[in-house]
């Protein structure tokens, strides 16, 4: 965990961009994420330049939460034997009163051609944090950590851990940027496009514009 992982100006720019963006809509994630909003970007190492060009406001998070490989501290000396080649980045907006039930991330499993593959690590940067919305980490049925969100705080945890978001209290929305990072083979990563955007908000607004013509 690292506080003030992104400078105040970059954090403010990211907040402003998301507040004005038509990309934020119904969450592309299923199940326990049903009450949340956001959008997602799947990319590989070959898509880093395109990601920087199309979404510059996200780059401060990508720099510290992905490119800097913060997960290495989770695996000790053996970390240098691994590398991450596929990434699932999503903006997660959890409204007041909502929560995210316990789960283990495996979003890219179907696209990587395997039955079940969990990410090597998950990085989270918090933008807006009303009361509640605590992140709880689980190893099996044992809770091993409870982390309070805070604007500018970066959390990185092992991708095989269960995790949940407690209910957001009071008013306001809990806003974070999350990136699942997968240590797959080059062949598996090559099955993915360099960059793919999944936005229900953008799609919905396109349909609205077409319908109004």
Question: What does the secondary structure layout of this molecule look like, with pairings?
Answer:
Blueprint (H helix, E strand, L loop, with lengths): L7 H13 L4 E2 L10 E8 L3 H7 L4 H9 L4 H4 L10 E9 L5 E4 L17 E8 L6 E5 L2 E6 L6 E5 L3 E4 L8 E9 L3 H4 L5 E4 L1 H12 L2
Antiparallel strand pairs: 1-2, 2-3, 2-11, 3-10, 4-9, 5-8, 5-10, 6-7, 6-9
CATH architecture, by name, is: Sandwich
Per CATH, the superfamily is: q2cbj1_9rhob like domain
* CATH fold annotation: Jelly Rolls
Task: Report the top-level CATH class.
Answer: Mainly Beta
Largest sheet: 7 strands, antiparallel
SS-based structural class? Answer: alpha+beta
Q: Classify the beta-strand content into a percent band.
A: 25-35%
Distance between the termini: 49 Å
Radius of gyration (CA) equals 17 Å
Mean pLDDT score:
91
Q: Give the overall form.
A: globular
What is the strand tally? 11
Task: Report on the architecture of this protein.
This protein has one domain (8-211): q2cbj1_9rhob like domain (Jelly Rolls). Strands 1, 2, 3, 5, 8, 10 and 11 form a seven-stranded antiparallel beta sheet that branches. A four-stranded antiparallel beta sheet has the order 4-9-6-7, with no helix packed on it. The protein is globular. It has helices at residues 8-20, 48-54, 59-67, 72-75, 186-189, 200-211, and strands at residues 25-26, 37-44, 86-94, 100-103, 121-128, 135-139, 142-147, 154-158, 162-165, 174-182, 195-198. With 213 residues, the protein is α+β, with helices and mostly antiparallel strands. The relative contact order is 0.25.
